[in-house]
Amino acid sequence: MAVLTFLWEHCSNYRFFSFIKVVIVVPSLYLLIRAVYRIFLHPLRAFPGPKLRAISHIPHAIAGTKGRAAFDVRDLHARYGEVVRIAPDLLSFMTPSFWQDIHGHAAAKKFPKYGYFKARGDAQPLLTADEKDYPRQRAALMQGFSERAIAGQESTLKRHIDLFMKRLEENSERIDMSQWFQWLTFDLIGEFALSNHPWVAILVRWFRAVSFATNANEFGMLAPVLMLFTDIKDLMGIKIHQENAAAAVKKRLEMEDDPNRNDIWSYILRRKHENPLSLGEMEINAAALLIAATSPVADTLSGAIYFLSRNPKLTLSSTSKMPYLHAVMNETMRCYTPTPGGGRRQAPPGGATVSGHYVPGGTVVAVYQLPAFTLPNNFALPDCYLPERWLPIDHPDSPKATLTDEQEVFQPFSVGPKACIGKGYAYAEIKLILARVVWHFDFELLDNGFAVEKQRAFLFRERPPLNVKLSVRQH
Ligand code: HEM
Ligand SMILES: *[C@@H]1O[C@H](CO)[C@@H](O)[C@H](O)[C@H]1NC(C)=O
Predict the structure, then answer these.
(1) Span 90-101, average pLDDT
(2) Is residue 340 domain-shared with residue 300, that is, in the same domain?
(3) Which of 410, 414, 415, 430 maximizes ligand 2 atoms within 8 Å of its Cβ, making it the mutation to test the pocket?
(4) Membrane-spanning residues where (predicted)?
């Protein structure tokens, strides 16, 4: 402020400087008044959180562009409790009842999605479809995700996994499992295109750019200016990925239908004359699915191998059997949430009650999975990788210490009508791959480059190499 007063006093004789004065003083006053309003008068003033975050969206946006947003939100929850005002209009919850209050079947209609970046202008994928198109798209895609459809894919999965296992054996001395899981999961969902590995490398650029744009959009008219600070290669990644996906859809549409082929696309393409999805929607859904079905699954698989390697007593063959396998999947997604952030929703105009807190209309609410799953409020021994906590309580290995865990807060796929459409597919796929790998190989971490606490996350994890030495087990 001293600088402003100085300018004001010394420059007032010059017409030019009086222009500067207006340019500097008016916005400063506006920001000052807004800051006072946001701290003392805003409807969210009573919610705990740092003052700076109540004043401005900048700290949250900066954390986002650094890939640290969810980690910072965890630190805030650790300090301020179960509800925190993490930006002027944005509340983060880590309460178990949050899920049903916001995302459940009764609530979902009242709480629309907020701030989802639309990577393509003229057609939307399911995730960003508006209320008018959403039900039609969800119904069209659901067919490919039914239990029957997933069961019908088992032989395709097996064929890919067989090949994958062979490649692992050939490269067993030193192999970056993170990379190989990414290739495998991409091949599994991209059956219609079959692997183009330079393409896979673009995925991380796509979600970094989308994450950046989502943050930039918070600044309204300034957003296009902020976009100048994105890595141009990341932006190009959006374009290239979407063009590749569109080309793959085109190729697939030209192919003869093979009745033995029962991947997700065959269900949509068999009905192409009924137009369940427009061509643009097919293209952009293909692009979205190639990301949504690849990154979080490869995250979970990589995380599992990482944690199991560090906990050798778990790499017994028992891990590959039920119910341990399920417990390992859940514990991996708890300690290494593939989607550490949270889909934002906006409270209805009249306000609503969320986990016992009155939330005024227009407030944006989110649950950040990373804090919700890794703070002691919800899980005992939160930093311990302890698959046994997921075993049935009458199981001999079920630990006493974790009986108080709030297991319902663990919803890595979200809940309600807009929850992950691929949940069943993901569990089936992860189970199959993990069981095969753990049953067949002993693995040894070659370095600690994967250290999960140092990683960044943009929508999904940005995984460093997971270098492992594999040896075939003698059963
Ligand atoms: C471990 C694996 C996975 C995790 C943790 C995960 C997590 C999620 C979450 C939290 C959402 C809700 C997003 C929001 O509300 O903003 C979501 C949505 C979605 N997921 Fe997944 N997902 C996984 C695997 C998959 C797979 C394998 C597929 C496809 C084969 C898939 C396709 C989708 C789609 C299309 C949506 C949008 C649903 C909608 O808006 O109706 N996901 N996922
Ligand atoms: C894993 O977590 C899900 C919650 O998404 C839960 O329904 C399931 O019972 C859990 N599995 C085990 C083995 O505890």
Answers:
(1) 96
(2) yes
(3) 410
(4) 16-37
